[in-house]
Amino acid sequence: MTREEKIARTFVELADTLVDDFDVIDFLHHLTDRCRDIFAVADAAVLLAYPGHHWHSPAPCNPRPALRAVLDLALREGPARDAHRSGQSVAPGDLAHAPARWHDFTTQARQAGYTHAAAVPLRLRRQTLGALLLLSTTLHPLPAADLTVARAFADTATIGLLNARALQQAETVNQQLHTALHSRITIEQAKGHLAGRYHVSLDDTFEAMRRHARHHRLLLTTVAEHVTANGTLPTPPATPAPPARQPPPA
Q1: Whole-model pTM above 0.85?
Q2: Which residue of 12, 79, 113, 212 could cross-link 90, Cys pair, CB 3.0 to 4.6 Å?
Q3: CATH code of the domain containing 142
Q4: What backbone torsions phi and psi does residue 196 show, to the nearest 5 degrees?
């Protein structure tokens, strides 16, 4: 698949949220997966803002300790916070020359091996849900054309999230996002169960749960809860047999 085909496919996937089994965690993970695949970035993460100025990062679901430390600081300062506040893309260039107000974020990011950081807001008109953070280890910053595509991805994802909220009148997307934060704990526990039982990596266990959830049209959290309680992936319910046909009356 060419790069252009991947970009076109990503737009279609990010717009496809008007379904009954829409899963916020999987949706955000898919967005960051596509960014890592298409752009010259080492890591990507979504940081979400909630009412009351609280920030959380439900994706990626299995960050390395070094990345986790960077994301913890990115919740307080750095390009993602600035992109959310301004509603504009932020690409400061080399982190060695980042603004002084990002001191802690920049120090942690450089210690983790990142050389450049950029962010685009998850924004539609006046409503901003958070920001998409892009971290690279290359000698050069993300090209302006790629940053434009990343902004378009973020815009499309925001439209998808807001459309999902409109579809689900009884439960807003903000509530789903808040639930996603707590669900990540269950997912991490489930990954540990499967990794220990089958002696595979945490990345492999997460992908196995994700594939299982998609194949059987289950929420990723539902699969993780079953793994945590039972130690195995849930068995999908058997399809009921059609009722036996009665012979016609004599």
Answers
A1: no
A2: 79
A3: 3.30.450.40
A4: -70, -35
- Per-residue pLDDT of 64-83, as tens digits, reads 788 889 998 998 999 999 99
Q: Supply the Cα-derived Rg of the chain in whole angstroms.
A: 20
Long-range contacts of 63-71 (CB under 8 A, 24+ apart): 66/111, 66/112, 66/113, 67/43, 67/112, 67/135, 69/108, 69/112, 70/105, 70/108, 70/109, 70/112, 70/114, 70/135, 71/45, 71/47, 71/133
Gap between the Cα atoms of 76 and 155, Å rounded? 23
Report the interhelical angle of 65-74 vs 103-111 (nearest 10°).
Answer: 170
State whether 28 and 139 are in the same domain.
yes
Better pLDDT: 97 or 62: 97
19 in Cβ contact with 160 (< 8 Å): no
User: Would residue 221 count as lying in a domain?
Assistant: yes
What's the token pair of residue 238?
């058997």
Domain membership of residue 237 (yes or no) is no
In this structure, how many other beta carbons lie within 10 angstroms of the beta carbon of residue 183?
22
Residues 176-217: tens digit of each pLDDT:
666 666 677 888 889 999 998 889 998 899 999 999 999 998
104 vs 15, 73, 193, CA distance in Å? 36, 7, 34
Asked whether residue 22 falls in the same domain as residue 105, the answer is yes
Residue 144 burial by CB count (10 A; 0-12/13-18/19+): exposed, middle or buried? exposed
- Indicate the number of domains in the chain: 2
Cis peptide bond upstream of 58, omega within 30: no
